[in-house]
Amino acid sequence: MAAQCCCRQAPGAETAPVRPPPEPPPALDVASASSAQLFRLRHLQLGLELRPEARELAGCLVLELCALRPAPRALVLDAHPALRLHSAAFRRAPAAAETPCAFAFSAPGPGPAPPPPLPAFPEAPGAEPACCPLAFRVDPFTDYGSSLTVTLPPELQAHQPFQVILRYTSTDAPAIWWLDPELTYGCAKPFVFTQGHSVCNRSFFPCFDTPAVKCTYSAVVKAPSGVQVLMSATQSAYMEEEGVFHFHMEHPVPAYLVALVAGDLKPADIGPRSRVWAEPCLLPTATSKLSGAVEQWLSAAERLYGPYMWGRYDIVFLPPSFPIVAMENPCLTFIISSILESDEFLVIDVIHEVAHSWFGNAVTNATWEEMWLSEGLATYAQRRITTETYGAAFTCLETAFRLDALHRQMKLLGEDSPVSKLQVKLEPGVNPSHLMNLFTYEKGYCFVYYLSQLCGDPQRFDDFLRAYVEKYKFTSVVAQDLLDSFLSFFPELKEQSVDCRAGLEFERWLNATGPPLAEPDLSQGSSLTRPVEALFQLWTAEPLDQAAASASAIDISKWRTFQTALFLDRLLDGSPLPQEVVMSLSKCYSSLLDSMNAEIRIRWLQIVVRNDYYPDLHRVRRFLESQMSRMYTIPLYEDLCTGALKSFALEVFYQTQGRLHPNLRRAIQQILSQGLGSSTEPAPEPSTELGRAEADTDSDAQALLLGDEAPSSAISLRDVNVSA
C-alpha cells in the first residue's frame, strides 16, 4: 500500500479548477521515476544526523527548484523503501535563494523511546515566507527504488523559484553501509560510508536519481563525538563542540556523486592540493605509497586536458567492506584499503579516478545506457596519463592485461550478448548496475583509441578532448554530442566520411554486439608481454620435465605485478590442467607466489581450486581467513562451489563469517546454497583440510546458509573491472 501523509492543502487548493495535466516530455532515464524533465534543480541542501547505534540516518532535505512549465501538479522524486518520509513542505524561495540555510539538530535522547528528533529546518523570523505542508505519497517503482510524489500548490508560475523541504529517516539503505568497530582495522569506532553508483543514492536522500540532472549542493552533518566526517565536497566549517561539519560543492554534480564517509579517520598531506585520509594504523602505508605521486598524475592530466576543476583531490581509504575497488567522488576519491599492498593496481586505480575528474564528473553520460562515455573516455585518459608518467611499455602491458580479461568475459557471455554493446538498451525495471562490465571500459576505450588514430596524432586528439571538456563541463551528454564535436573539430575527417567507413561505422561501434571492431597496437609493450607468453608456452609444451626445467630458469620475482597476473590468468583460462602440470607449477611457484600481493595470490589460489589441488588448500584457507573484501573472497567461493570442494568452502565460511560485512555474508551464502543436496559428484578422499567439513550434512549447511535473505545474483569480480 502506498504510504501517505495528508497535510493541510495550500490556501486555495480546495477550490482550484480541475485542469488536465500538460503532456510531459519524454522521460530522461528509464531508471528514474522522477519528473526531472519538468523542473530545473538549482541547489540541494542536506541536514544529516548519523546514528550508528541505530544504523539510521536522519535527514532534512531542501530542494531549490523552478518549474519549466506553469502550474505543475506534482514533483516526483526517486526514493526507496528504506527511506521513511515524515513530512513535506513548500515555501517560496527566500530573496537569497542560493545562500546555504542553517539546520538545527537535537541530541538523541537516552533509551529506545522516544526516538531522537529529526534534524529541523527552521523558519527564518519574518524575512522569509512560511512553510506550507504538502501532501505526498510513495509508490512502488522497481526492486531498486520507489517513486515519491509530492503535490505542489496550484498557482506556481514557470521559472518561479521555490523550495520543497523533506524530513526523513533512512534505515537499511543500499547506499549507506554501517560498519561495527570490529569490521574496521582499528576496531575502535563505528564507520559508515555511502556508495551511490549507479542508482543507490535514492535510498540516501530523495532526489532526481539520474546522471542527466546536475546541481550544486551543501550539507551540514552531525556525528558522534570523535568521528571525522568527509564528503565529496569542500569542508567549509567544523564546530567541534557540537560535532557538526559543514560542506559545500560549488560545481553541479549528479546525485550519484554525493558521497559521505565517517569514522576514525586521520589526514596526511601528500601534495600541495592532496591528502590521504585513513584509519591511524593505515595512514603511514597510504602516505608512503602516494606521497608526491598524486600531484604528478594531476599535473600530467592538466597538461593533457586542461585545469583541474575541483579544488582539492583527496583520497580516503575505506575498510575492506567497501563493495568495489574505487569510486571517483569529486574532491574525495573513495578507494578500498585492500589494494594498498598491490602497488601497480593501486597506481592504475587512482589514476583512473583522477581521469574521471574530467571524464565522468565534469562531463557525464546523460543516461546509464551510455556509461562508456564516462568509463571508456576515463580509461583512455588514464592510459595517456600513465604513458606520460611511466612510459608506453607499462601502459601497453596494463592494456594487454585488461583486454585479455575482456575476451575472457566475451567467452563467458557470448559474442551476441546485448550487454556487449556500447549503447545498451536498458529495459524498465533492470538495475543499471547490471550494465557495469568490461565492455563499458575496454570496448569503450577501443572506440576512443580508434578515434584518436583517425586524426593521426595523439596530441591533436588530446587537444580535441580538452576542447570537448571545456564545451560540456558540468553538463551531461549523449554519444552524438561527442561524435559531432569530434567531426567538427576535425573537418577534414568529416569530409572523408570516416564515420561511415565500411565495417568501422560509428553506428556499428555503438550498437554491434561482440568484441571491439579494432584493437590498439600494443607492440610497444612487447618487452614486457613477450616473456609472459614465452613462459606460458613452456608450461603447455611437451615433454613436461624439459619444459618445467626451462621455465624454472625464468625468475618471475623480478617481473611487474601485471606480468605475473597476466601469466596466471592464462593458466586459469587453461584450467583444469593436467595434474602433473599443477604439481610442477606448485613446486616451482607456490612458496614464491605466497609472498606476493593479494592480486597475485588470489590468481594462484584460483588455479589451486579449479584443479582440485589439495596439497595447497591450506593456503586457500589462510587467504580466506585473512580477507574481508568482496573482490578477494567472492571469486574463490564461486570456484570452490563449482566442483568437489563445497564442503571445504562451507567449513571456512562457518569459521570466518563473523568477520564479514552482512552484505558480503549474504552474497557468499547464496553462492554456497546453490545446488545443495543435488550434487552427483563423488566426494574427495578425506584430508587434513577436508576431514571436518566432510561431516557436514546438506541440512546443516542449509540451516547455516538460509538464515538471511541472499541477494539475487553474485558476480565473479575477477572477470570485471570493479573500479567505478
UniProtKB/TrEMBL annotation:
Residues bound to Zn(2+): H352, H356, E375
Superkingdom, taxonomy of origin: Eukaryota
Cofactor note: Binds 1 zinc ion per subunit.
Region (Disordered): 675-698
A Gene Ontology biological process term: proteolysis
Pfam family, one: Peptidase_M1
A GO MF term: metalloaminopeptidase activity
Claim: Metal-binding is one of the keywords in the record: yes
Name used for this protein in its record: Arginyl aminopeptidase like 1
Organism: Macaca nemestrina
